Amino acid sequence: MSTRADTALRLLIVDDRVEDAEALASGLRNAGIAVRPLRPESDDDLGRIIGSQSPDVVIAARNSTVLPFAQVMQRIADSGRDLPVIALVDTLVEADYIDAIQSGARAVALRHAPQQLLACVREAWADRDARRGLRRLEARVRETERRCDALIDSSRDPIAYIHEGMHIRANAAYLEMFGYESFEDVEGISLLDMVAPQHVESFKALLKSLSKGEPPPPRHEIEARDVDGNAFPASMEFATAQYEGEPCLQVVFRRREELDAVLVLELEELRHRDQVTGLLNRPTFLRAIEDAVDDAAQSDGQYGFLMLEPDHHQQLLADIGLDHADDLLAAAAEHLQTLVGDDATVARYAGHTLAILLRGHDYHATSATAERIRAGFADHVFEVGERSSVITVSIGGVQVGEKIANVAQVLARATTALESASGTGGNRCEVFDPSAVDRVEEERIQAWVARLRGALDSDGFVLHYQPVINLQGDNAAVYDVLLRLDGGDGELIAPGTFLQIAEDNGMLGEIDRHVAARAIAAIGQRLRAGHPTTLLVKVSQASLDGDAFADFVGEQLAEHQVPGEYLVLQLPEAKVFTHLKATQAFAARIARFDGRFALEQFGVGLDSFQLLSHLQPHLLKLDRSFTDDLPNNSENQARIGEIARRARQVGIRTIAEFVQDAASMSILFGADIDYVQGNFLAAASPGMQYDFE
Q1: How many Å apart are CA 15 and CA 46, to the nearest integer?
Q2: Helix (H) or strand (E) holding 437
Q3: Is the per-residue pLDDT at 270 higher than 70?
Q4: Treating both helix axes as pointing N-terminal to C-terminal, what angle do 325-339 and 313-320 enclose, rounded to 10 degrees?
Q5: Is residue 655 within 8 Å of residue 620, measured between CB atoms?
Q6: What distance in Å separates the CA atoms of residue 258 and residue 266, rounded to the nearest whole number?
Q7: Average of pLDDT values for 309-335?
Q8: What is the DSSP letter of 214?
Q9: Does residue 8 come out as left (phi exceeding 0), alpha (psi in the -120 to 50 range) or beta?
């Protein structure tokens, strides 16, 4: 599913009230989904959005009167687009549910059950992506089939496709071998008709076993007969296939020269072997990997895959001589075969890299085998030419299973593990276990929780201050407080790395109090030094619950003798929309000691100014997206001007952050923005040394 952080969900919301639509979008944002909401206000607007904006998911209120649900479904059906619709209801009524599903809705969600709505959105989005991916794959398969068909036609090998014993496809070489002029002459003829009478019964038994799913023999030798009844010795090779969507059997016929049967088998074996080591060659081994991957994906089979290289190979060659390079590899291959069991398939993968496929091995068995091979090499003295030497090896591997049933991933993971083992000194094993990823992630999160707890207990957080500069002539000192985590060794970690973990583990409230207390203390120090300073401090929605945080701020202001007007607490617009009553109560509580609050990330909602009919913030900080490439974005220029104008009408000041160049500064000044900040003006730093004069 495309819910990664850099992908936004284009969400079309059909709802009568913009506040309700914004609440839906905000709820999804709170759940970690980047949302680009769209809300049509008329049927024409709906048609335009569907046709040009390409939404991913539609949430349509069943009780909408502006755009009735049936009208929305008809408009989507008429568009011909694959657009999943979630019907939104206030209460679940069986008749409404059935009607919505029969109308084409993918799901029905309750407005006041945010987790159920979230699950519906995720599922609808994932299904849409899956269907798109399937259509792309189908197109590729069709193209591949066309190319394969062309290759079959041009092949010199006689090839036919057999379904239920009958010919459904044959190439020109096949027709020529049996004396037919066109495929129409052989279409529908049984494959048994191509077999000499004395082989019919045994061939019937073979076809019966193949129809049961039993593996075909590498080669089946018979006497074939052509259209005139002439017999000739032939060999047949089989493979399961599909033709025009039908499962079938691919048969390759070859005329068989009257060679000694033992010699034929020896030649066949040599075709699959590497001449230096006697192991399987790469093409044959890759087919074995493909079979293992298919079995893991379809039947939950377990396989271990290991890649092995002698350590310090170039130095070894320098010691024994380049003319003994093949002897070295052959000796390593011979010893490797003594260290693995009969359930292992061993091959020369590439150059001096050997590979092992282990059947029926779970992760622990694969790791144990890798360690046994490593130790077996380290303890063995190799005789190569006139020299004897200990050869250690590096081993990288991967556990092939349902979570990594992909040939490219298997090879890439094993190669990475091999490079890691070799790069850290050699004589080591590294085996990647996909099923351990979840455990590793849990351990990572717990390590972060412990790290954050340590930072709270031992003052491990660092505050940086970025100047916020007034464009209208006011030279009072104002800084935005930015949180960092001391990572040790001089490394500072940005909050985007750890705040989600803090939120998931209930630590945001503590972090808010920690930052607020330090910011108030810093304001107090500046006041006593004769440098009155206003600090903008970000707080989370966790601090909106109850009176605790507001009371704590009041106590800290009193303790450090700081007037509340010097502290501005910032709340994201999206969080405020979904915690409106709590924000109103919070604003009232901090107003008792003259504390201020600001809305940040402002302007990206469906109707951001709707909030201002319920709240009166002291500052609006525009979302950073508005200043991205501002000189070349006329739409953002117009939007900034509109926000500044409307804010000024109701007596609210505005801040534009992430200002990147002088041209942007000029545009913001012309739009009557009050404050600006960004690295172009002054970067954040641990101190407050900016000269505002």
Answers
A1: 12
A2: helix 437-457
A3: no
A4: 120
A5: yes
A6: 15
A7: 84
A8: P
A9: beta
**All residues at 6 or more sequence positions from 151 whose CB lies less than 8 Å from its CB, including other chains:** none
Q: DSSP readout, 619-684?
A: EEEE-GGGGTTGGG-HHHHHHHHHHHHHHHHTT-EEEE----SHHHHHHHHHTT--EE--TTT---
Q: Which of 250-259, 460-469, 484-493 has the lowest mean pLDDT?
A: 250-259
Torsion angle (degrees, nearest 10) of CA 684, 688, 690, 693: 140
- pLDDT of residue 436 exceeding 70, the answer is no
Q: What is this structure's pTM?
A: 0.51
Q: Is 529 strand, coil or helix? A: coil
Say yes or no to pLDDT of 153 above 60: yes
Q: Given the DSSP bridges, would you call strands 469-470 and 675-676 parallel, antiparallel or unpaired? A: antiparallel
Maximum separation of any 2 CA atoms in the chain, in Å: 112
Q: What is the pLDDT of residue 62?
A: 93
pLDDT score for 314: 82
pLDDT at 5 over 70: no
Look-up of token digits 């039947």:
299
DSSP code for 278: -
Place of tokens 């089939």: 145
Q: From the CB of residue 212, how many other CB atoms can be counted at a distance below 10 Å? A: 6
The set of residues, in sequence order, having a beta carbon less than 8 Å from that of 444 and lying 6+ positions away, is none
How many other C-beta atoms are found inside a 10 Å radius of the C-beta of residue 30? 18
3-state secondary structure of 356: strand
Question: Who has greater pLDDT, 434 or 70?
Answer: 70
Backbone phi, then psi, for 531, in 5-degree steps? -125, 75
Is 185's pLDDT higher than 50? yes
Over pLDDT 70: what percentage of the chain? 94
Average pLDDT value for residue range 670-693:
92
Minimal CA–CA distance to 518: which of 558, 575, 556, 554? Answer: 556
CA distance 674 to 371: 67
Residue pair 103/73 in contact by the 8 Å Cβ criterion: yes
Sign of the torsion angle spanned by Cα atoms 475, 477, 481, 486: positive
Q: Reduced to 3 states, what is the DSSP secondary structure of residue 579?
A: coil
Q: What is the mean pLDDT of the chain?
A: 86
Q: Which two tokens stand for residue 69?
A: 């649900």
Partnered with residue 21 across adjacent β-strands are: none
> Please, how many CA atoms are within 13 Å of residue 286, restricted to the half-sphere of its CB?
8
Supply the pLDDT for residue 267: 59
Q: Name every residue whose Cβ is closer than 8 Å to that of residue 409 and which is 6 or more positions away in sequence.
A: none
DSSP codes, 144-192: HHHHHHHHHHH-SS-EEEEETTEEEEE-HHHHHHHT-SSHHHHTT-BGG
Residue 395 pLDDT class (50, 70, 90 cuts)? very high
CB 373 within 8 A of CB 360: no
